């Protein structure tokens, strides 16, 4: 769990470990921007849409709206910080939309040589101690962003409002809630979230459908309706636009792992 000072901005830390080689593994949009640190000596290759590249050692992975695949060497271990949708710009100091559909080296973002930070983190013998080094780094970044807090608080309120209404999207209703024009709200979200309000709604609805496919015995038709898709065709079309695969593919792959 993040420290008290970071809890309003970071959902959680988690560790991805791959015991086997993975080739062209589908990567699903989560609705969260993530900071990923490769704490192994293994390589990861990521393909977002048509663009393929090696994952940086310290990566900013933005929101994914295009089909994305990863090829991962056995033994890869990655320490991941998952930011709340409203919060990443407090730590990265760039418009969040610059990271959407991109895997970006954090050193390039901050215009810093981060080898000292990475070496210090790697010297720590446990994940818990590595996270302490990571948190010290993040707190320094946060301290430089106090002027953004007011805007961030407003974006957080609107993000929570959108998340609480997963059945439908109405930009006029959202703009009225935010007491902002639709145009200003769109710009605010692109700067601080990296997505428009409608795109955030769509990704969150998609992520909910993936969770239900993996955990529920309900039919795909019922899952689609529960997540607010107006018919099966709409559900499949949006699912494929994000991943390149169908809901049925995910359901079959989930069954194989049981």
Describe the structure.
The protein is α+β, with helices and mostly antiparallel strands and 258 residues long. The chain is built from eleven helices and nine strands. The chain has helices spanning 89-92, 106-110, 115-123, 127-143, 149-163, 171-178, 182-192, 197-215, 220-226, 232-243, 247-257; strands at residues 10-18, 22-27, 34-38, 44-48, 51-54, 58-61, 68-72, 76-83, 103-105. It has a five-stranded antiparallel β-sheet with strand order 1-8-3-6-9. Strand 4 and strand 5 form a beta hairpin. Helix 3 (115-123) runs antiparallel to helix 4.
Please supply descriptive tags for the structure shown above.
five-stranded antiparallel β-sheet, alpha+beta, globular, four-stranded antiparallel β-sheet, 258 residues
Distance between the termini: 29 Å
User: If strands are numbered along the chain, what order do they take across the biggest sheet?
Assistant: 1-8-3-6-9
- Give the topology string: H per helix, E per strand: EEEEEEEEHEHHHHHHHHHH
Number of strands: 9
Structural class: alpha+beta
Q: Mean pLDDT, nearest integer? A: 93
> Percent of residues in helical segments?
40-55%
Radius of gyration: 19 Å
Report the sheet with the most strands, covering strand number, pairing sense and barrel closure.
5 strands, antiparallel
Q: Flag low-confidence runs.
A: none
- Oligomer, anyone? single chain
Strand proportion, as a percent range, falls in: 15-25%
Outline, from the CA principal axes?
globular
Number of continuous helical runs: 11
């Amino acid at each position: 769990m993040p420290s008290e000072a970071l809890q309003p901005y970071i959902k959680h830390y988690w560790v991805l470990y791959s015991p086997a080689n993975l080739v062209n593994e589908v990567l699903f949009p989560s609705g969260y921007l993530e900071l990923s640190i490769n704490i192994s000596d293994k390589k990861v290759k990521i393909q977002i849409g048509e663009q393929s590249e090696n994952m940086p050692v310290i990566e900013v992975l933005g929101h994914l709206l295009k089909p994305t695949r990863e090829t991962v060497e056995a033994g890869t271990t990655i320490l991941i910080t998952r930011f709340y949708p409203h919060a990443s710009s407090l730590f990265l100091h760039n418009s969040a939309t610059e990271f959407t559909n991109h895997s970006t080296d954090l050193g390039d973002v901050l215009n810093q040589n981060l080898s000292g930070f990475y070496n210090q983190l790697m010297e720590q013998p446990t994940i818990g101690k590595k996270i302490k080094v990571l948190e010290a780094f993040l707190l320094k970044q946060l301290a430089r962003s106090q002027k953004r807090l007011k805007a961030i608080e407003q974006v957080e309120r609107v993000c929570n409002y959108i998340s609480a209404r997963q059945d439908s999207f109405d930009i006029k209703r959202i703009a009225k809630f935010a007491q902002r024009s639709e145009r200003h709200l769109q710009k605010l979200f692109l700067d601080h979230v990296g997505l428009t309000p409608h795109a955030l709604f769509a990704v969150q609805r998609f992520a909910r459908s993936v969770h239900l496919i993996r955990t529920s015995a309900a039919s795909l038709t019922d899952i689609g309706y529960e997540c607010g898709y107006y018919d099966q065709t709409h559900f499949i079309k949006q699912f494929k636009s994000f991943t390149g695969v169908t809901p049925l593919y995910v359901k079959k792959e989930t069954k194989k792992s049981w």
